Amino acid sequence: MGDHLIVLHSAVRACAGYDRHEAPSILMDGSSIARDTEHGRAVGAQLTRRQGTLGEAIDAGIFALGAAGLSKGIRRQARAACEDYFYERLGLTPDLELGGREEVADGLELMPDEMYRALEDLVELVVDGEYEELSEASKHRLEVEDLHRRIEVDCPEALVLPPREVYQVEAITKSDEPDMPGWAFFLDLWTETGPARLHIEGELEESGERYTTTLTDILP
């Protein structure tokens, strides 16, 4: 179960004022990379739609909810929430062209070295295409063939290890669930020219002076 950002993060992350913590989201079953889950049906459908403008990206998000089987009532509420956030709160327009490059924010605190090293090890598996090890890192909740399809077919890009300054505290969130101690992470992957289309999500758990990572999804 996870929070699905109704409008793809990669489509709108460069929009002025955008904050993924504030953007409209909805709880959906399953990982996004598995075709037979609610979440997987949504993202799979969303990736087929044109998203050159903000209006198109919102349309794609609502189309995806329909493909996942959500009711018209829920889709209407989702559209209203997206239009309120992007058009009213951020003052953006439907014809805003997307695809601009997002710059790494200056002045944000870097995450501790132990967390950085744990996440860099995980990112290196993605960059190197080590799908068996990535599946193990997900505790086998993500299948090898699904990982391969998402990274090499759905959103193919030449990935590289991000620079150290990308690993900022903004990418991690302390869990407030008593039965889930640790941290959640949401980290953009990287190309030679900047942020990649995909990002990784998961959990960091402290064990002595080290952190262990659990990969929960890879999304655009």
Helix content: 25-40%
> What does the largest sheet look like?
5 strands, antiparallel
Secondary-structure class: alpha+beta
- Strand residues, percent: 15-25%
Q: What is the CA-atom radius of gyration, in angstroms?
A: 17 Å
With helices defined by DSSP (H or I, 4 residues minimum), what is the helix count?
7
Give the tally of β-strands.
Answer: 7
Low-confidence sequence ranges: none
| Element order: H for helix, E for strand | EHEHHHHHHEEEEE
Please tell me what the overall shape is: globular
Mean pLDDT: 93
Distance between the termini: 17 Å
Characterization of the model:
The protein is of the alpha+beta class and 220 residues long. It is built from seven helices and seven strands. Strands 3, 4, 5, 6 and 7 form a five-stranded antiparallel beta sheet that branches. The model has no long low-confidence stretch (mean pLDDT 93).
List keywords for this structure.
220 residues, five-stranded antiparallel beta sheet, two-stranded antiparallel ribbon, alpha+beta, 35% helix, single chain, 7 strands
Detail the topology: elements first, then pairings.
Blueprint: E1 2-5, H1 9-12, E2 25-28, H2 38-46, H3 54-67, H4 72-89, H5 113-127, H6 131-137, H7 144-154, E3 159-160, E4 172-174, E5 183-191, E6 194-207, E7 210-219
Antiparallel strand pairs: 1-2, 3-5, 4-5, 5-6, 6-7
Helix pairs in contact: 2-3, 3-4, 6-7
Short structural summary:
This protein is of the alpha+beta class.
